Amino acid sequence: MEDENINKAKNVLEEISQDERERRLTELREKYRMDQHAIMLAGYDKGLRDGIEQGIEKGIEQNRKDILEKLLKTNLSIEEIIAITGFTEEEIEKIKK
Predict the structure, then answer these.
(1) What angle do CA 31, 33, 36 make, to 5 degrees?
(2) Which of 54, 82, 55 is nearest to 95 (CA)?
């Protein structure tokens, strides 16, 4: 039974290797599989998602600070700015400097 399966596999391999297009597709599939495995082992998949999330958070925080700086240039009181932005008085003082 085992020899029969090996012979079948050899026959399929010979058929595939005869057709250049099929051979190339098989090589590309195997390369893709190996690349995906290497990415997973290296941890890039998770690291990339974490990096994107951190970038988004940093962008949101920078946007809030930009808005605060603009509000500080208006005639609004600190209390009004706190109500609008959610910043604490201490955070506002740090940004003012």
Answers:
(1) 105
(2) 82
